[in-house]
Design goal:
Elements: H1 4-21, H2 23-36, H3 46-84, H4 90-111, E1 121-128, H5 133-152, E2 156-164, E3 170-178, H6 182-186, E4 191-198, E5 207-219, E6 233-238, E7 254-262, E8 269-276, H7 282-305, H8 307-314, E9 324-329, E10 334-337, E11 343-344, H9 347-351, H10 356-366
Parallel strand pairs: 4-9
Antiparallel strand pairs: 1-3, 1-5, 2-3, 4-5, 6-7, 7-8, 9-10, 10-11
Protein name: Peptide chain release factor 2
InterPro entries: PCRF, Pep_chain_release_fac_I, Pep_chain_release_fac_I_sf, PrfB
GO molecular function, one term: translation release factor activity, codon specific
């Protein structure tokens, strides 16, 4: 059974969250922002109205999150008192403690996500490294890992572009992961991921090392102002690949957007290339590609304003030795993050999407340097 010290810890952390989140002030803010939604002609500008409603909703989420934690902490204290009168069992108290501490830790983690982009949806792109089939298979394993993580957390995942590997796996994939704080949680996944295992594709059963890179950017919506110069854009269309279907390889529904980006701060130029085959509707794919372009341009702006984002970008090195952020060593039953030194022996769990330990360790170490 839990100790009185564990109960005190939950109560103290709950009280600290009320201070850190400034719940009293947020309640005043919600009332003020809700009054604005009652103004005459509020819905005349739909885009502005939706942005205002989102503002109210986001503030309310923090209040509701704190209230849930406070309720669980109070229930735990009550159960502890009832135990003295033999009205509850030790098992019931331990269960109440587990619920309360999980809720406290979850809100503490979310409290670290205070940057402008943290609450946004995100675009996650995976590219395989050199090494042919082995690295392509590794890229597909990472894709599954992130999809399982998103599924567990109730996020919506859509595949914007996917290029299959030559024999197995994938060469590249771009996924949209939609849900509150998905960018904030996944931004630390930026970088090179290294796999060490006995290769199923090697007849001699040799130990092989493979690399894949992960890039995460915020997925912006229409409320975010991003400047795009039409003269710098060009479009190509192509036939989408895939299994079966009358449209496949007959209708040019896939789109390729090239944007000649010029950095307004440094004057450096680069070509941004986006491919979208998400639907069989070419106009819809163009719309999705434009949304991704706006997300990329928004992220580039963030990099100039946020020191940590600049560090992340600087860390995107060649996909090879010495640049990895995390190693997955299957034979030794070990996954280790080289930035935080957090590691686990639950390799199968990690590949099934259990990466919250890595996410929390990254945020605890680096979120403070972003403020």
């Amino acid at each position: 059974m839990i100790t009185i010290e564990q109960l005190k810890d939950v109560k103290e952390r709950t009280a600290a969250l009320e201070r850190y989140l400034d719940i009293e002030n947020k309640q005043v803010q919600v009332e003020e922002e809700q009054l604005r939604t009652q103004a005459p002609g509020f819905w005349d500008d739909a885009k502005k109205a939706e942005a205002q409603m989102k503002k109210v909703k986001d503030l309310q989420k923090w209040i509701d999150g704190y209230r849930e934690v406070k309720t669980m902490a109070d229930e735990l204290e009550l159960a502890f008192d009832f135990f003295k009168d033999e009205l509850v069992t030790e098992e019931e108290i331990d269960a109440a403690y587990q619920k309360a501490i999980t809720a406290v830790e979850s809100l503490e983690l979310k409290n670290m996500l205070r940057q402008e982009a943290d609450q946004m949806d995100c675009v996650l792109k995976i590219n395989c490294g050199a090494g042919g089939t082995e690295s392509q298979d590794w890229a597909s394993m990472l894709m599954r890992m992130y999809m399982r993580w998103a599924e567990t957390n109730g996020y919506k995942v859509s595949v914007a572009n996917l290029q299959d590997g030559d024999e197995a796996g994938i060469k590249t994939v771009t996924m949209n992961i939609e849900g509150s704080f998905s960018y904030g949680y996944l931004k630390g996944e930026n970088g090179v991921h290294r796999l060490v295992r006995v290769s199923p594709y090697n007849a001699q059963g040799k130990r092989m090392t493979s690399f894949a890179s992960v890039f995460v950017t915020p997925l912006v919506d229409d409320s975010i102002e991003v400047t795009i110069e039409p003269a710098r854009m060009s479009w190509d269309t192509f036939r989408s690949g895939g299994a079966g279907g009358q449209n496949v390889n007959k209708v040019e529904s896939g789109v390729r957007l090239r944007y000649q980006y010029k950095d307004p701060y440094t004057g450096e130029e680069e070509e941004i290339l986006i491919e979208n085959t998400e639907t069989r509707d070419q106009p819809k794919n163009k719309e999705n590609a434009m949304r991704q372009l706006r997300s990329i341009l928004y992220d580039k702006e963030l990099q100039h304003r946020m020191e940590e984002q600049a560090k992340v970008e600087a860390g995107k090195k060649k996909i090879e030795w010495g640049s990895q952020i995390r190693s997955y060593v299957f034979d030794d039953r070990r996954v280790k993050d080289h930035r935080t030194n957090f590691q686990t022996s639950d390799v199968n769990g990690v590949m099934d999407g259990k990466i919250d330990g890595f996410i929390k360790a990254y945020l605890m170490e680096f979120s403070g340097s972003e403020n």
